[in-house]
Fold this protein.
Amino acid sequence: MLPFLESEFGNPNSIHSLGQRARYAVERARTHVAELIGAEDPSQVIFTSGATEGNNQVLSSYPNGAVSPFEHSTVREPAAAFGLELLGSEDLLIIPPKKPFELISCMTVNNEIGTIWHPGQLNYSAEHVHSDITQAVGKIPIDLTNLSFATFSGHKFFGPKGVGGLYIESTAPKVLFFGGEQESHVRAGTLNVAGIVGMGAAAQIASDELDSSYARAKKTSEHCS
Ligand SMILES: Cc1ncc(COP(=O)(O)O)c(C=O)c1O
């Protein structure tokens, strides 16, 4: 990461060699992040400023959607702002919706009490399922099966702050930031190269250490239950 703060000032969208070195580093980071979250192809990962941005982008695309009652404020508040419904709950179970939605959003690991849900297995009538996987990445294996979208932040697996990703299975959500062709036209704006490279390095380490991190998380969970 440090060379991209000290001397490697290229913009990955520039065609000169300095730019292309930055592009190479960004794509390498994309591969490491894709591997950590279990994406089939690195191109399914879009770099963002973090989970807040990704959550806003996904939820703003599907006003005919619903969110679980256990979500972080970065899902709950945009859901309210964009007119999505809030699902009910019984203890820590989500009450299945009685009507179909275009999108259901359910986090994978809760940020307060660590409860784990399996959004891809909910089997609700929804065209798309989104999961905020922020608290799961690097701690438990991620299962992207049946998910259209997943969102996360690099700093939760010891990358730098202010950088994260949006996983897109196949159909991109609506554009939130217009004005540039970066990130396959899904997210305009010059890439945060140093942040992305730092997150890529953190992802590589997190993948290598996933077995022990998962074992530690399970032990903590058993201790607390
Ligand atoms: C579950 C969850 N979602 C989203 C966020 C927001 O992340 P960021 O502030 O990096 O965008 C957090 C941050 O704590 C979180 O725990």
Q: What stands out?
A: Residues 50-52, 72, 74, 107, 111, 132, 134-135, 153, 164 surround pyridoxal-5'-phosphate (CB under 6 Å).
